[in-house]
Design brief:
Strand order of the largest sheet: 1-11-10-7-3-4
Distance between the termini: 33 Å
Number of helices: 1
CATH class of the largest domain: Mainly Beta
Helix content: under 10%
Strand content: 35-45%
């Protein structure tokens, strides 16, 4: 697994190996990202959690071991951080730092090798976190140049002013002390008093349809489907580039696609059944690249967007699509977990597209339509949602104008060589991939992507882009962010981009 990657692990007792001669510890965090008290810090001086769910068991041969009994982790704990530290220089001097999880039968479940350690002396190498009734493993790789003191403070441990051992991992018997290098031990942190139980809410009145149908014209996050300039002189396929209700591809009654349709297409459907075949227009859609050089986008067929609204968990089937990459937009009203995945021919989850706890999630992701032309999507949500499947040509173009976004996104670059400036203000993973399409004529598959950003937390990035056409995928970007092109060069290729 690479940094930022995540995947489900079996909900069984796991043995976690921390390689590279690092000192290991674990922090058990609540949904607020902090410990409840000293007992939630497991290290050499306090090797067992009071619940018995997490234990530091042994070290030898350059490997430290943590036993994590996932079924025994208390319900109030939502994340278990696996931490590695050293008091012998910096982590960049450590040979082979890695974390690996093993099932009870000794099978390796997942492994993450740290490849970009620098001046840090402590690092959250990985985390186990609850998701959809199970547990997932994430390769974090977040280092702390100020050592275990900074790491502990960030997760709610109160570091006292008294002196502390300087050996990196204290051997004293004081429970709950945090192992630091020359850093005072934390004072005990009392568990917060439980809040009084709220009065039960009245039962909601049943609603025949979710709030999306029909709402007043919503005010979506900027960055979704702006109209083309009236003077662009670009011929339009019906439903593209025409004047729009905010955020959606064609003239609409609120929440619906009002472009000419086959009967029933784009209206609310019985979830997943009897979906009419969308009309498919197998012609390129020429689109000017405003602010970034002239160019045509002709990669992949186009079709009228398919729209469906629903509520809570559901399975959606869209028939009659051209095989290949498409853009799926999902907007959810609510503050629970949001997930979306593609189902394969065996009705099993194949590709995870969305995995977020953002309130009122909104985003666009890439999905691949199989050769049979039927896209099956599993949606997990707590509240009403709206889903739209659009051709790749409908994605927004990158320009030199700084634009606000929120959530994952699919963007197109059709100009010459340029630099992509990104200002990310979220707290979770930022993962950006680039698909270079020049010379790639297979419209049923995207070429191999290049990962250009894989970081965690707020940051600014500038990414050099080659000449278009490119697909720029913000695969993970929970929270707000901005992007624009800088130093854009005129395109050197003549004619249409292909």
């Amino acid at each position: 697994m690479t940094k930022g990657g995540n995947g489900y692990v079996p909900s069984v007792p796991l043995r976690i190996a921390v390689h590279g001669g690092l000192d290991a510890m674990a922090l058990l965090l609540t949904e607020h990202g902090v410990v409840r008290g000293d007992g939630d810090v497991v290290f050499h001086g306090a090797p067992a959690h009071p619940s018995g769910a997490v234990r530091l068991t042994a070290a030898g041969g350059g490997t430290a071991w943590l036993d994590v009994g996932l079924p025994s982790v208390e319900e109030q704990i939502t994340r278990v951080l696996v931490v590695g530290s050293t008091d012998r220089g910096a982590l960049r001097d450590v040979v082979g730092p890695a974390v690996e999880a093993f099932a009870p039968d000794g099978t390796s479940v997942v492994r993450y090798d740290v490849t970009d350690a620098a001046e840090e002396t402590a690092m959250v190498i990985a985390e186990l976190y609850r998701r959809a009734g199970g547990w997932k493993f994430r390769a974090v790789g977040q280092g702390y140049a100020n050592g275990l003191a900074g790491l502990a403070t960030d997760h709610g441990v109160d570091v006292a002013d008294a002196g502390a051992p300087t050996s990196g991992v204290p051997s004293g018997p004081t429970p709950g002390a945090v192992p630091t290098t020359g850093v005072p031990a934390p004072a005990p942190v009392p568990a917060p008093a439980p809040a009084p139980a709220p009065a039960p809410a009245p039962a909601p009145a049943p609603a025949p349809a979710p709030n999306f149908a029909p709402p007043p014209a919503p005010a979506p996050a900027p960055g979704f489907g702006p109209p083309l300039p009236k003077d662009s002189g670009v011929p339009q396929v019906p439903g593209y580039g025409a004047p729009q209700a905010p955020g959606y591809g064609a003239p609409q009654a609120p929440g619906y696609n009002a472009a000419p349709q086959a009967p029933g297409y784009g209206a609310p459907q019985a979830p997943g059944f009897g979906v009419p075949t969308p009309p498919v227009t197998q012609v390129p859609v020429p689109v000017p690249a405003a602010g970034s050089g002239s160019g045509w986008w002709s990669y992949g067929p186009v079709f009228e967007p398919y729209t469906q609204i629903g509520r809570d968990n559901d399975v959606i089937t869209v028939d009659g699509l051209p095989p290949g990459p498409v853009v799926v937009q999902l907007d959810v009203e609510g503050d629970g977990y949001t997930g979306m995945s593609v189902l394969n021919w065996r009705n099993k989850e194949k590709d995870f597209l969305v995995n977020s706890t953002e309130e009122d999630f909104r985003g666009r992701v890439l999905a691949k339509v199989p050769k049979n032309g039927t896209l099956r999507l599993k949606v997990e949500a707590e509240g009403p949602w709206r889903l739209e499947v659009s051709p790749l040509a409908a994605a927004r173009r990158l320009t030199e104008e700084e634009t606000d976004f929120r959530g994952p996104e699919v963007l197109l670059h059709t100009g010459g060589v340029a630099d992509l400036a990104i200002h990310y203000r979220g707290d979770e993973n930022l993962i950006v991939n680039v698909f270079e399409l020049h010379g790639h004529d297979d419209h049923t598959e995207l070429p191999e992507d290049e990962n250009v950003v894989n970081e965690i937390g707020k940051r600014r990035e500038t990414v050099p882009l080659p000449e278009g056409p490119l697909v720029v995928q913000f695969e993970m970007a929970d929270g707000p962010w901005r992007a624009h092109l800088k130093r854009v060069q005129p395109p050197t290729r003549q004619g249409r981009f292909r």
